[in-house]
Every structure is written in C-alpha cells, then in structure tokens.
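Researcher: Good morning. I'm working through a list of sequences from a screen, and I'd like to move beyond sequence-only analysis. For each chain I'm collecting a predicted structure so we can compare shapes side by side. This is the next one on the list. No need for commentary yet; just the structure.
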Amino acid sequence: MNALRRLSITARITIGSLIVAALFALVAVVVIRIGVSSILHNATLTLLSNDVAGPAQSLETKPTGPFDLPGGGQELAIVADDGAILASTMPEGLEDRMPSLVAQGQGLRDVQVGDEHYLVLTRSVDTSSGTMHVVAARNEETTALLLDRLTAALLAGAGVLIFGFGGASWLLTRTALRPVSRMREQADRIAASTPDEAGLLPVGPAQDELSELATTLNDLILRLRASADRERQMVSDASHELRTPLAVLRGQLELAELDAGDPDALLHDIRSSHATAIRLAQLANNLLELSRIEAGPSSGRIDWRTLVDELTDAIDRARLLVSSDDEASGISVDFDYDPRRRPDSGARVALSPTDFGRILDNLLGNAITAIRTSPKGHPDATVTATLALADRPDGGQEAVLTVRDTGPGMPEDFIPVALDRFTRADGARTGQSGGGLGLAIVGALAGAAGGQVVLANAEPSGLTVTVRLPLRHD
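Model: Good morning. Structure tokens for this chain:
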C-alpha cells in the first residue's frame, strides 16, 4: 500500500483501471463460457432426441428387423429388454455397458468410458415383440474442445482489451491532468518571481473541478499577496513612524545628559522623554492590535445590553479624560439611546466587549483631541455618542453607533483615506498621541464584524462618524 501511494496519480489510476477491467473481463469470460456451454448442451440433447426418433419409429413397424441404423458418425444401438444388443454403431466400451444402461430405464445419463465422456439417451419402445430400447450417444470431447478454444480466445481478447483499456486510461488521465501540470509550472514561476512580475494560475474554459481549483487557488494567491502587501506596508510605515519619535527620544536623552547640572532643565528633559516613550509604547500597542485584528475574525460576541453598558462606560472614561485635562475643560460629553427598542432575542454583534470599547475610546478620544487642539477654541463644544437599532435591506438588523462633535471637522479630500493606517489630516485633527492608527483600528474592528465606518463633516462644523455593525444569531 505504501509503495502504491508513492506512485503518481496517473500510475495509480491506470493500475486501478487495469484491475477493474481485469475483473470485469474475467466475469465476462466466465458468463460467456457458461452460456455457450448451456447452448451446446441443449443442442446435444436436441441431436440425441433426433437420433433416437427415427429408429424408435421404425421399431414400432418392424420390431424384428432388419434394423437399418444411420451412419455418419451417429452412435446408436437397438437393445432387447433382456439386454441383448440387436444392432449397434456404438464404440466397444459403450456396448459393454448396454445392459446396465437399459436396466436403469429410459432417460439421459453421463457415461465415462476411459478418457471419453458421453451423453447417453435411452428411449423404450413397446412393440408387438415386447419392449425394446433405442440408445443414442454423443461424445462430449468435441464440445469440451470447443469450449476450451472459445475460452482461450476470450481470454486472449480480454487481455488485449485490458491492456488497451489501461493504455487509454493512461492517456486520458495524462490529458485530464495536463492543466494541473500547467498550474504547477505556473506556481513554480510565481514562487520564483517578484510580486510585481507574478501572475495567476491558468483557468481553463471548462467549468469543471480543475477550473474551480484554479479559481480557489487564485483567490488564495490574491489574499496572500494582499496580506504580504499589508505586512510590507506596515513594516515600511512603522519604520517611518518610529524613526521620528526614536530620534526625538535620543535627542531628549542627550539633552538630559547635557543638563545634568541643572535640576529644572533635567526634570523637563526627563518628562519630555517620558512623554515620547509613552507615545512609542502606544504606537507599538496599536500596531500589535492591528495585526491581531487582521490575523482573523473576532471570536467574541456581544449582545445589545452589553453594547449599552460599554457605551456608558466609555462615556465615563471620556468625561474623566476631559476633567483631568485643563486644556479640554468645558467640553461636554454625552450619550443617547432608545431603551424602548431592542433587537431580537439572541442577536449579537461579532465583537468582544473590549473591541467595542476600543472603538468608542478611539472615536471619543479623537473627537476630544480635535476640539481641544482647535485654533478657534472650544466654547460650548460637545461630543455626543448615540447607539441605535436599524433595519437592514436584507431583513436583518444592525447596531448603529454615531459619534458627533462640534470640532473643526476634516478636509474633504482626506475623508476617503481617513481609515488608512498612519494617515493624518493637516490642520485641526492631528493629535500626536495616536500615530495615525486610531481610525484605522476602528475601521479594522468594524470590518472584522462585517460592518463599515462612514465619516462625514457636519454643519456648521464638526465631524460625524457612523459605525454600522450587523447583528447575527449565530
């Protein structure tokens, strides 16, 4: 079995076809031999019946002879009731057994005489001279020889057919697997080429399993390329983003070394270095979070009540952030939801509570930072988070999270790329703590849950971020 597994698919299919063909051929030879043997046996019986018919009719009219037995190789005998042979063309071996054959009564019997095998038919005829018997015999050697030659011919023909079937199977298998060989050759070229030069596997015109396999593998190749492109882009962007804070941190540490004799300057340098280190740590954490999100779909599930609880907790954290920052004082953070409308029982969003809280923290934090850093200040500024339930066109339901602020908004040309990693808008919403990953994480989390994020500037000022998360019953 292990040796068979090491063979190629073509060889295995060919061997299997040969085995199946051999079995069918063997069964066909046996069935044909049995059928022909039955036909020959019935023909012999018919001939024996015809052999005894003429002499039996002659005995009824001439019981005392003369007995004119036909020649031409017919083996006949006229036997009296006491076993005496009145006329015979039988071979000597059969004549010696006439008394016993007659004594057994009329009917068909197999008789073996030496190496010869005979079929013997006995018929009794009532005449005016008493009961007489007509015995006819047919040598089965001719029939056996005919069957043997027929069997040999059938076996020879079956052998030719088997090998022809095996050759046809080999050719058909090679032809059927030729697209697989082309796909393998193309895969080798893809593996040896650069991403820009690599193509896709060839898809044949036939709508068969190989075309489906090639299509599936092409989808896999495209996903792997997209993943590799994202990884390369992340490494490039991370290197670019980390270079500046690392250079700043190095400069701050060098300044701290130079200011070793000035306690106030040294303290300022240490605090600046600490702030830069915090930014680096947050950037690294955000990169790890993005990698985790893009590695696969979330296994968490969160129901409507937990969504509301996470909303209120995030609002409390945002209010604490505002109260602890003198520059953000005066910003009002509030939330709203309709407690009367609830989704169907068992409906859940495909996110963990922590991930939904991260979406809220990023959106609320971005809104507060945009208002706080606005050149126009933030008199009577507000940030409002609303959680609502909406019906989907496909008949399902979705949770709709909307975060509105009265900040400076975003440049219209930046909104289409706002969810890309490491992107920052020039102007008011350029917070330095997130490293351009906050909205990218929000978009990735929403996408992992099967949802989407939509950004739009509000009138007369501010930004509205809408996160739509489908509710599922799995």
